[in-house]
Amino acid sequence: MEKVTLTELYKQFFMLGVQLLGGGYVIVPLMKKSFIEDRDWLTEDELVNFYALGQCIPGIIAANVSAFTGYKLRGKRGAAVALAGIITSPVICILAIATVLDKLLQLSFIQSIFWSVNIAVVILLYLSVKEVWQKSMTGIFSWVIFIATLIASLIFKVSPAIIIVCSLIFGVSYKIFEKKRSER
Amino acid sequence: MKIYWFLFYEFFKIGLFSVGGGYATIPFLYQLIDEYGWYSAKQLSDMIAVSVLTPGPVGINMATFAGFQTAGIFAAIFATVSIILPTYFIVISVSKALKTFQDNFYVKASLDSLKPAGCGLLTVVGLRLLKNNVTDLWSVAILLGLFALSFKFKKNPLYYFLIAGFVGVFLHHFSLIEI
């Protein structure tokens, strides 16, 4: 395979950012089309693997997958260029909207759209919990963390970062304990 | 200048601690309301709506938007770069150990503990926005309608937003809601 130029890499990830609409997993079919079928940049296995890994590590999934792909093609620079590419169009687009949003929101017509779309935001959160629910809740262990999180966040307003770190410490030590016990 | 330091600190932290994609950043963005008051809960809800309806990864869109609400255009770019900076370092270190990473005991144990916490955090934001956004009979009706659709319908949130938008305009046109 010929070495991919950084300009070409940037261009393709820029285009990917333009096409992404409505949630991270859309990136898979898009990348399949332009990176596997149109270009020979990735294999099917690599894409599946990058997506799976992208969900495991912290951060925005689409950005993770882009960085993995960029790194595979051109190393550290490739990862940086892929990330720059994927954020370009969203940043421009959002800035364009954000600068006029306050004025738009003075129109009652626009307000009515936002009024009802904000109800759909509640459904969106419900759907995103539902999507990961089955994979997340695997037993009493996960229920303990889930309920502790609810109480800490809802009642005591503990910051998400502290909750994440505490569940990590509790969870991993419990798993180590469990492993040691089963080995005995 | 001080605000840029806070922006970097907060958004880098979000990039580092939000596990489970773009929506996982929402609880962190909500936390910033209480802590700094850079924007209101209503504005955050508007930001989520705009982020889903415009091209680009939702998490990136929201970082840009939140940064803009905080201190304008440069803050927006700064926040976006801060949120993806951890990604850069994490991906590079993980790429070196790709094959063994997913089967590693500690990686698995971490994920098993982080997922339920992520569910809990998102549930809490959902409840808070429910309290904020669903305030009268019409909004309850829309909520239940969308909820019913979710049993049969595609999971892409875009469709729900479009339907909700139309209903809002319709209700407004016939003066059934007061805005």
Total of helices of chain A: 7
Name the shape of chain B in a single word.
globular
What's the tally of helices of chain B?
Answer: 9
Indicate the structural class of chain B.
mainly alpha
Q: Biggest interface and which pair forms it?
A: A-B, 100 and 105 residues
Give the integer mean of the pLDDT values of chain A. 90
Counting helices, strands and paired strands, the structural category of chain A is mainly alpha
- Largest pleated sheet of chain A: none
Mean residue pLDDT of chain B: 89
H/E element sequence of chain B: HHHHHHHHH
What do you see in this structure?
The complex is a heterodimer of chains A (184) and B (179). Chain A has helices spanning 6-19, 27-37, 44-56, 61-104, 108-136, 140-155, 160-183. Chain A has 184 residues and is mainly alpha-helical. With 179 residues, chain B is mainly α. Chain B folds into 2 domains: 2-133, no CATH class; 135-179. Chain B has helices at residues 2-17, 26-36, 41-53, 58-71, 73-95, 98-101, 105-133, 137-149, 157-173. In chain B, helix 3 (41-53) crosses helix 4 (58-71) and helix 4 (58-71) runs antiparallel to helix 5 (73-95). Chain B starts with a helix and ends in a 6-residue tail after the last helix. The chains are: A mainly alpha (184), B mainly alpha (179). At the A-B interface, helix 1, helix 3, helix 4, helix 5 and helix 6 of A face helix 1, helix 2, helix 3, helix 4 and helix 5 of B.
